[in-house]
Amino acid sequence: MSERISAPGTSHARGRAGADPGALDDDATLHAMGYPRKLTRRFQAFDNFAISFTIINIISGIFSSFGFGMNAGGPRILVFGWIGVSVMVLFIGAAMAEVASAYPTSGALYFSAGKLAKRHKGAWSWYTGWLNFVGQVGGTAATGYAAATFIQAFIALQWSSYEPTAHQTVLITALIIALQGLANTYTVQLVAVLNRISVWWLLIGLVVIVSTLTVMPDDHQSASFVTHFANNTGFTNGIYGGMLGLLVTSWTFTGFDGSFHMSEETVRATVNAPKGITRAIGYSAITGLILMLALVYSIHDYDQVAGSSAPPVQILIDGLGMGTAKVLLLIVIGAMLFCGLANLTSNTRQIFAFSRDGAMPGSRWWHTVSPRTRTPVKAVWLAVGCSLALVLPGWWSHTAFTAIVSVNVVGLFLAYAVPIFLRLRLGDEFRAGPWNLGRWSRPVGILAVTWILLSSVLFMLPQASPITVDSFNYAPIALAVVLVVATVWWFATARRRFQGPVSYGRPDEVAAMDLV
């Protein structure tokens, strides 16, 4: 990976070695893309990194999906699958980062898709934007639901008479998302502070959990236990069961486009946004592997833990006792809450940008910015409302809720793939920003798109046997609904009014429109 300086949109990736990336003025870059500045630039490099690191959130992701991995491949897939998939995700992040450096806008994926497409710019941008929107809304809903589930697990440990219900889970989820909406309503500075706190919460929490699991249990599994393989998926083919286990890592590594979406609020965005993406993935890969190993080697009775309702919680109870397990569970819950907050922030910026280009119903509402807080408050509450709408089916059926939010990962990764694929098609015509991959751009991009397509197929396949109403994987149906609605809408009205990202005028004209 390299950082080469070239004026965005004016030259290829042949910049002056050693030049100062800060020489590229953020506002001038935004004006050159046809947009006035409406949002406050208060995100430094660490803040931009923090948003993606918090959304990836290895504590939340691993604790939520560890049980699935124990039954789909076991330690061998949990550990070595984590390493392999992390490398592939880093390729995706690097390819996305290169695009982010060239087009540092809140529109991120859909904006760059519209700019990189040679033909049908509006259609490429339209589908990318809606996949990104639905994926992010599903992520906010799923993270809130996971937090509500673990909160109830903590309450049940504290008061044995408490029995979690679907209704209680939905109500707690709604309260969590509403509170996260309030936090996003009051200034970018507050969100930035909370995201800084979240990074230290994750890192210190990781140290506490790993240290406790290393020191306190009377015994651990032998070194060779990491090669143990288990296939409790119901499928007789062990290779297929193990491949399903790779989804644990893919589920965890979502949302790193958050750094891209915060570009218009980031200082030196052409460099700090791509750095935020790649650093968030790299640090998450390393810290996640440490946490994964700590949990794996702390398993006592494998079958008992794998069959429990919350395997990671059972590991904590078995190895540390009830009191310590409760304390560590609070760390996990806090990580999930921070994750949801950051996810909603990213979701809001995507709505703001998508509406700015007239791609959403009521666009003139959703891209307005509060003159007092300098945040897109209406977009915040649209994101909250849509997330609550996805949570609501959980009142009647957990399966229905799972079907809706399962499109989160598939929608996001397909949205990631589009601009990377279009950048590959553009070849030498692509005008790179200061942060670029140089000669490695094409091979990294090819690997990134290939892995996205393969992992998306895995997300669509059955994940448990026998296949019943409760075990059926509804992801393909959910994704099909999204694509059908987007297609009908596109051919009915959108293709006549939406031609992709708009320009508000020449750089000097949009500069006069700056509101900050």
UniProtKB/TrEMBL annotation:
Pfam families: AA_permease_2. One of its GO terms (molecular function) is transmembrane transporter activity. It is found in: Membrane. The chain crosses the membrane at residues 45-68, 80-103, 124-157, 169-187, 199-217, 237-260, 280-300, 320-344, 379-396, 402-422, 443-462, 474-492. One of its GO terms (cellular component) is membrane. Its main location: membrane. GO terms for biological process: amino acid transport. It comes from the Bacteria. This is Amino acid permease. Keywords: Membrane, Transmembrane, Transmembrane helix, Transport. It is a multi-pass membrane protein. Coiled coil: none annotated. Residues 1-23 are annotated as: Disordered. It comes from Streptomyces avermitilis (strain ATCC 31267 / DSM 46492 / JCM 5070 / NBRC 14893 / NCIMB 12804 / NRRL 8165 / MA-4680).
